[in-house]
Write a structure and sequence with these properties.
Radius of gyration: 15 Å
Distance between the termini: 36 Å
Shape: globular
Number of helices: 3
Strand content: 15-25%
Oligomer: single chain
CATH topology: OB fold (Dihydrolipoamide Acetyltransferase, E2P)
Length: 160
Amino acid sequence: MFRLGIILIWLTMGGCMARPVSLMPEGARAVTVVRVIDGDTFVVEDGSDKGETVRLIGVDAPETRRSAHRDIGHFGEEAKAYLTELLSGGQVFLAYDVGKRDRYRRTLAYAYLPDGTFVNAELVRRGFATALTVPPNVAQADLFTDLEREARRKRRGLWK
């Protein structure tokens, strides 16, 4: 299904620090980001007035708005700001798993920056989101779980 690249880890001065995870699959679809809704959801151009809403697979960021079922989450605004920063270039590449839409009709996708940075993984690695496995979309579940453990251990983001 996915033809995965390698995970890039770079050394920086002063010790070992993981750089963004890169797993850009072949055939990812280029889209233009219109706006970020919250830390795990954004809208891309699709020719319609509303755009196409994309929900990132395998991650769950804290809520930024109160709803009937959820309160505003701790670190929600920070997660939204970080995703906004990541997607500030405007272009992103989307790749899919088994299920293409959720019950709210949002497109379910893995997102990649033009440089290959795996957006879903970066959110978890930096502590802006937790791993969330929802079958049948489980291709990257182990990676996200490992990255969440690392974020907790290193007290990043939500885990400070």
